[in-house]
Specification:
The chain is built from 11 helices and 8 strands. It is of the alpha/beta class. It has 2 domains: 196 residues, TIM Barrel, CATH 3.20.20.140; 71 residues, no CATH class. Helix 5 packs parallel to helix 6. The two termini are 18 Å apart.
């Protein structure tokens, strides 16, 4: 069993490198990849023999970089990357977490106020350098009884679904356009390949009604190298569709839980949601390189 999609405190995960390695060792994962958002700094720690020895399995160097397709904010996974080279490139290539969070926070507040919702921003408490502002904003909006119509308006479930289905959805009134600050897929993939990496589409079905256009954009002319076919929120039907697609179109296959620790408590490393994943190690044989 393997898990090639997980995040640490270097991005929006809640666990340290050591804690990730210890958990991977405890559940006997054969191979992992740490794929922090827009950084490979975790791999600097893995150069320490003392740290690396906490996990006896294989590690594929990886990352997850933001991109955008027709207004929909997406991610692209990079595997087999030279992390030293990528860490030198990324600070001048991707917008900082703080810049994106500040932009999205300001725009989301404007939208709520324009739509007539009660929103008091003076006491909002979050750090844009580390946290997404929509969580605090949604909590504030939903704390006012007069805003209860919001639940019905967007069929609200949680902040993660709200981001995917609304904030990054051009068809939603809560859409926030990040096109001016996030690089295009071609640019992201060029960077991944410039550091000897392979580019994979992650969790393509979580983009809701925009999934089809994202998938078509990234597979046209074999823009990417592979597809994340196994994912915590995929149905068996979706997994099998992607596996068949990869086989027919000669794409590499990957899979991962998108583990974030306590931030996404429902997702367990290696096994996903309610043990719905068991990703076979054989899928990486055609393409993986290890550190």
């Amino acid at each position: 069993m393997i898990d090639l999609h997980m995040h640490t405190k270097y991005s929006d995960g809640t666990y340290t490198i050591s804690e990730i390695l210890q958990e991977a060792e405890r559940i006997k994962l054969e191979c992992i990849s740490i794929t922090d958002h827009d950084t490979c700094l975790a791999y600097n720690e893995l150069k320490s023999k003392m740290t690396r020895e906490k996990y006896s399995g294989k590690i594929i160097p990886g990352c997850e970089l933001k991109s955008i397709v027709d207004g929909t904010t997406i991610e692209i996974l990079g595997y087999n990357v030279n992390t030293d080279k990528l860490n030198k490139i990324l600070p001048n290539f991707v917008p900082t977490y703080e810049k994106i969070n500040t932009h999205e926070t300001e725009k989301l507040c404007e939208i709520f106020k324009e739509r007539g919702y009660t929103l008091i921003t003076d006491h909002l408490n979050f750090d844009v350098r580390k946290e997404s502002g929509e969580i605090a904003i949604l909590e504030e909006v939903l704390s006012h009884p007069e805003n209860n119509r919001f639940y019905e308006e967007v069929n609200y479930t949680d902040e993660h679904e709200f981001y995917r289905l609304h904030m990054s959805n051009p068809n939603s009134p809560y859409f926030i356009d990040n096109s001016s600050i996030i690089p295009k897929p071609e640019e992201v993939i060029d960077v991944i390949r410039s550091v000897s990496g392979l580019a994979f589409i992650p969790h393509v079905f979580i983009y809701g009604e925009n999934s089809k256009k994202v998938f078509e954009k990234l597979t046209q002319d074999h823009l990417i190298d592979g597809i994340e076919c196994y994912y915590s929120k995929f149905t068996d039907k979706q997994i099998n569709f992607l596996l068949d697609y990869c086989k027919e179109n000669k794409y590499f296959v990957s899979g991962g839980t998108d583990y974030h620790g306590k931030l996404k408590k429902e997702i367990a490393m290696g096994t996903g949601i309610n043990n719905n994943l068991n990703i076979p190690a054989c899928i990486i044989e055609p393409w993986a390189k290890f550190i």
